[in-house]
Design goal:
The protein has one domain (about 10-130). The protein has 5 helices and no strands. The chain has helices at about 1-5, 20-35, 45-55, 65-100, 105-130.
């Protein structure tokens, strides 16, 4: 199982995938564009950087079109978040199939339990503000 766990995708501190990251940057870009269109000052360098991160080439001036794109981006983010657990289950199943373990159910449970404990310790570390968390050992 250790070799299977090594091939798990690396989770960032927030656990976001690249697709979610892009959608979040698009939402930020369209919000900034909407604010700029309404007369709030926004620096060009910030707009260019956020547009780059969002992967958007469109720079519209029509408020209706900006709102429409913002709404569509929110919908795609909601859709992605609804299907993320199914995608994760499918990935874990494929990962368990690649292992040489005879009991696939046990392998899946082991992967899920280890991910859950990593998630718990990560949340403890983040909420407590610790840069590293020392885990208790059973060695004497």
């Amino acid at each position: 199982m250790i070799s299977a766990e090594k091939s798990l995708p690396r989770q960032r501190e927030r656990g976001w995938t690249a697709e979610i990251n892009t959608l979040i940057h698009r939402i930020r870009y369209y919000r900034l564009l909407l604010r700029r269109n309404r007369g709030f000052p926004t620096h060009d360098l910030i707009m260019r950087k956020v547009r780059e991160l969002a992967g958007v080439t469109w720079d519209g001036q029509d408020e209706f079109k900006i709102k429409r794109r913002l709404r569509l981006t929110w919908k795609s983010l909601d859709e992605h978040q609804r299907t993320v657990t199914a995608k994760r289950e499918k990935f874990i199943q494929e990962l368990a199939n690649k292992t040489n373990c005879s009991d696939q159910e046990k392998a899946i449970q082991l992967i899920k339990s280890r991910e859950a404990s990593k998630r718990q310790f990560r949340s403890i570390r983040i909420t407590q503000g610790w840069s590293s968390l020392l885990l208790p050992t059973t060695d004497k």
